[in-house]
Amino acid sequence: MASIMVLNGPNLNLLGTREPAQYGHETLADVEKLCADAAAALGHQVVCHQSNHEGVLIDLIHEAGQRVKSGDMLGVVFNPGAYTHTSIALHDAIKGADVPVIEVHISNVHARESFRHHSYISPVAAGMVVGMGVQGYVLGIQGLVSKRA
Ligand code: DQA
Q: Which of 14, 46, 131, 135 gives 18 a disulfide partner, CB atoms 3.0 to 4.6 angstroms apart?
């Protein structure tokens, strides 16, 4: 059994009440339970984190990189929230830590404002899931596991 980090960035602690037309009615706790069940069905476990702080997210990516190297973690299913569109530091962290990341967006960012169309994360991601609602996290977990099998 290996671990998968499920990492959520800024404002995703507000899931369930934040813009439900975009992000649905499930809470972050619901999402984390969905992820735990999806990982367990594949014989793995999740470690879930959420932070509104860029530096904390960077530290967690570094930690995941160490755990991937030591063999007890497969990678990270990461919704970077708005940092997707702004953070060269997160881009560098993923590249520097050499950690497999599946980028997840609940909404279809390409059907929204143009400032959401560019991602600093996609060029260093192993894959991405966009616009599939919270089910995107499950697809991300399945994708990460099948890539690492
Ligand atoms: C998001 C899309 C981002 O543009 C936005 O800033 C978010 C959530 C999504 O899951 O659809 O916070 O990453």
A: 14
Query: What separation in Å is there between the alpha carbon of 100 and the centre of ligand 1?
Result: 20
pLDDT of residue 66: 98
141: annotated binding-site residue? Answer: no
pTM of the predicted model as reported, rounded to 2 decimal places: 0.97
CATH number at residue 35: 3.40.50.9100
Domain range for 51? 3-148
**Phi, psi angle pair for 137, to nearest 5°:** -65, -40
Closest approach atom of ligand 1 to CA 79: 13
Instruction: Indicate which residues carry an active-site annotation.
Output: 23, 105
